[in-house]
Design a protein that fits this description.
about 40% helix; alpha/beta; about 120 residues
Length: about 120
């Protein structure tokens, strides 16, 4: 979303822009982006270095990864092996949050509300 905001569906942008909604950005997302940039799977010049300021521009709150999030992520009976996705799903469940994603794999997990485009 931060790397290519032009790809976000108009309805999703409107939902995210609604200040009645609290926006959370997971520390797991920061780790995933930094990792993918480092290994060359994501080309997003300057994104890692500007991560914190971009989160602030969104008027979002950072969501740290807690041991509760980590233990649920590891315990979910879900065949999906991506640790980042498992953490995001666990955070969405425990924080009663809607997960904004383009990843359709996250739709398969019961208990995760999602907003996709």
């Amino acid at each position: 979303m931060l790397a290519a905001p032009q790809r976000i569906d108009k309805a999703v942008k409107e939902t995210l822009a609604n200040r009645e909604n609290t926006l959370l950005v997971s520390a797991a997302s920061a780790l995933e982006v930094a990792t993918k940039v480092r290994i060359g799977k994501l080309i997003a010049p300057g994104l890692v270095e500007s991560w914190e300021s971009r989160v602030q521009e969104l008027a979002a709150e950072e969501l740290d990864v807690s041991s509760r999030h980590a233990t649920l992520a590891g315990s979910l009976s879900w065949e999906h092996r991506d640790l980042f996705d498992r953490l995001l799903a666990a955070q969405a469940i425990l924080e009663n949050a809607t997960l904004v994603t383009v990843d359709r794999n996250l739709l398969a997990l019961p208990g995760v509300r999602s907003l996709t485009w």
